[in-house]
Amino acid sequence: MIKKLLLIALVCCSTFAFAQKDGDANISLGVRGYNYTELPQLFNQAKDHQFISTTFNSYLIKFNEGLFSYRLSGNYINKSLQFDNNCAGCDLTTGKVKDYAFKAGFEKNFSYTGIQPYFAFDLGYRGTEFNGRGFQEQKTPSAVNYRKRGVTVTPVLGIKISPIKELSIFAESNMEFFYAFGKERATADGTDQADSHKFKKGEFLINPVAVGIQFHFR
User: Fold this and answer.
1) Whole-Å CA distances, 98 to 20, 63, 148, 191, 193
2) What's the average model confidence in pLDDT over 8-19?
């Protein structure tokens, strides 16, 4: 019985010591290998077309201080997109969307164990642009352009697993508030006249899951 207790204590101490070494890393570099994310709304886009999957488009760097870290991150999406505008099944719009963001914030781990849940909070700048064509029922096709830029506020919940001290695998989800200034423009084929207007808009974006890997350096 005593031997079993000593063995359990040794394993626990080893796990704690290993996790402390991981937490003591000065810098961590990471990449999100998979994201399932919600894009900002384009025009009057039907909601069920805004979630997309991306791979290896988001990177981060962290400066660690034990259970507390400062983090910088950036992402870029350049993707072909087709969606219904105004309502489901009408006004087909097709083209390319570019979405990018730069964020700074902090991350708080809740333990030094091998499995570490954490909370993060990021502030940043985001821009979304779309260029394509709109095909409205019984109307002349149009060249359409849409862009908005603004600030983001993003609370994050995540969990990390460290199989070795130099590496962690993480999964996280967040809800982002995006407040932007924008402009949309449509020019019908064969004309020089454009229909455009400016707007201000705030929206909540749900990003259910991101999975990635971090490398730790001293």
Assistant:
1) 40, 29, 11, 26, 25
2) 39
